[in-house]
Amino acid sequence: MKDTPTAQVEELYSTQPMIAFGWQHVLFMAAPPIATLFLMRQALGFDEALTTELLSATMLVFGIGTLLHPL
Asked: Using an 8 Å Cβ cutoff, are 58 and 34 in contact?
């Protein structure tokens, strides 16, 4: 049998870089909606309680979306 080269996409990396890339992905994907929320707070004059509730709801929806994504 002839050895075929492994495609770069199929290479496995060690755990430490994968954890770092995972956190980078989470932070990058969470930043735009959170920044939008704070811009809306400034523009529309939301109080701190409403901003906190909206931020909590945003994180809850992110969590649900993450759990449902593999399905």
From this structure: yes
- Structure tokens, 53: 């509730």
The pTM score is: 0.61
For residue range 4-29, list pLDDT tens digits in order. Answer: 776 677 777 888 988 998 889 888 88
Q: Tell the burial category of 34 from Cβ atoms under 10 Å away from its Cβ (0-12, 13-18, 19+).
A: middle
User: Which one, of 32, 39, 69, 38, lies nearest residue 55 by Cα?
Assistant: 38
User: Amino acid identity, residue 1?
Assistant: M
Q: How far is 71 from 66, CA to CA, in rounded Å?
A: 10
